[in-house]
Amino acid sequence: MKDIILVSLGLLLCSAGIFLFAGMYSFEFSSHSVKRIILGGAALIVVWGIITVVFRHRAFIVNLNVSLISFAVVAPFIAEIVIRSSIALGVDVFRNPKLYADPLNDDDYWKLRYIWNPRNLATGNAERFVVDQLLGWSPPKTRDNTMGIVSDAPYSQDFRKPAILFYGDSFVYGATLVPIPQRIPQQLDRLLQTYPVYNYGVSAFGVDQIFLRFRETHSAFQHPIIIFGILTEDIDRSVLNVHAAPKPRFELQDGELDLQNIPIPEDSAKWYMQNPVAIKSYFIALFRRTYQIVTGGSGRRIEKERVNKKIIEAVVNEARKHDLPIVFVVFYSRHELEDVSWRETFLKNLLEELGIPYIDTKAVLHDAAKEQSINIREFYLYRYNNDHHNELGNCVIAAAITGTLADKIGTEITSIKPANCFD
User: Would you tell me how many other CB atoms lie within 10 Å of the CB of residue 44?
Assistant: First the structure.
């Protein structure tokens, strides 16, 4: 009986190692080093399986296998106790939501972030954002800022005059390290002069929220020009129920968009209590998250493509329904500057399919960097560990937008060369 058990165990180990080795070619690993480590682990499992079968009569092999099996059974329980105790005691290394959930795919990441630091975008930055029952959060409307846009001074608007409305997330809203006059819409406003440009960007918005803000605000103006900015990662935010704070979300019902989660409650703390973290085991969550990182999991790609395709189509249909000229601007996070992600490919293919003009900021910045013989990093706030553009990057992008507007919208707009930003 002992022989049968040991032979079965050895064959099981060999099969597991071979399966792991064969399965490696089905995944995209985060690095070659990770792949080599897993290859070594697979080889070790196979070798140990062979040793178990060949030397099954030796007491040392029997005892070692018993010890390994016992450890494998008990270790997860011990690990769970250690993790939960460390979290309860406030040990920072274990209070990192990224250990247990993916910020691009899992609501639990944002829920844990709030629980361990009960301050979200809507409640922790009252001077910048307030709870919005439709959008989740938005800049507050005040006597000096009646439209709730990004502005550093009181303004008066004439809704009857032609205007440009610039929508997007924090790449449009602007990094807080960058003075408001140096943000993209503000620089565009200065370059164009003939058209006022209003900054409707809101930090941490997904494509869904950007669309809703556009749909709810453009009708105040008479025939405005629309600029719709999308950071590639905004695609991921569209499948989340919570990000920097509780948010709306579109689901597909019979192929049509169905808006969920509204109205957003004014009391964010109550929402988090009513929608607790779904994690049952932090050890399993840690194991699963590690596996996702190592294998470069798909991250709900099909769901994201389907939902965002319908949202972007809705954006275009809304613009065409009201005869509004529209241009898209595609922004990129740091890790996408040298590589082409599925998000970039998806966005470009969709916009070309819809026949919508767009500015590819990666290409714009690469061309400017090459022309000026500088590193593309010079256009970003990397020295501050921030992925957003700095004043120079904003200027180059704003200048590129003038060129697209002049080509696609009308000759009354003067095209400005990005090279002018270096004068």
Answer: 12
User: Quick one: pLDDT at residue 63?
Assistant: 74
For 243-274, give one letter per residue: b (16+ CB within 10 A) or e: bbbbbbbbeeeeeebeeebeebeeebeebbee
pTM: 0.85
Q: Examine the pLDDT at 111 and tell me if it is beyond 70.
A: yes
Please state, in angstroms and as integers, the Cα–Cα distance from residue 162 to each residue in 166, 198, 222, 338, following that order: 13, 11, 7, 38
DSSP string, 377-401: GGGB-GGGT--SB-HHHHHHHHHHH
Query: Residues, the chain, total?
Result: 423
pLDDT digits 0-9 by tens, 52-106: 777 777 777 777 767 777 666 777 788 888 889 989 998 888 898 998 999 999 9
Q: pLDDT tens-digit profile of 224-256?
A: 999 999 999 999 999 999 999 999 999 999 999
Coil/strand/helix, residue 405: helix
Residue 318 is inside which H or E element, if any?
helix 301-321
Q: What is the DSSP string of 193-205?
A: -SS-EEEEE-TT-
First CA to last CA across the chain, in angstroms?
84
What CATH number matches the domain at 117-271+299-422, 3.90.1150.10, 1.20.120.140, 3.40.50.1110, 3.30.360.10? 3.40.50.1110
Domain ranges of the chain: 2-89, 117-271+299-422
Percent of the chain clearing pLDDT 90 (strictly above): 54
Helix, strand, coil shares of the chain, percent, nearest 5, are 55, 10, 35
The enclosing H or E element of 257 equals strand 256-260
Tokens of 282: 């932090």
Q: Which residue shows structure tokens 């809203």? A: 173
User: Distances from the Cα of 410 to the Cαs of 191, 212, 358, 407, 422, in angstroms?
Assistant: 16, 27, 15, 7, 26
Sign of torsion, CA 372 374 375 378? Answer: negative
DSSP summary character for residue 358: E
Burial (CB count <10 Å: 0-12, 13-18, 19+), residue 28? exposed
- Lookup: tokens for 270: 């109550």
| Among 422, 392, 410, residue whose Cα is nearest residue 184 | 392
Closest CA to 288 of 22, 102, 87, 160: 102
Q: Which of 171, 180, 249 has the alpha carbon at shortest distance from 204?
A: 171
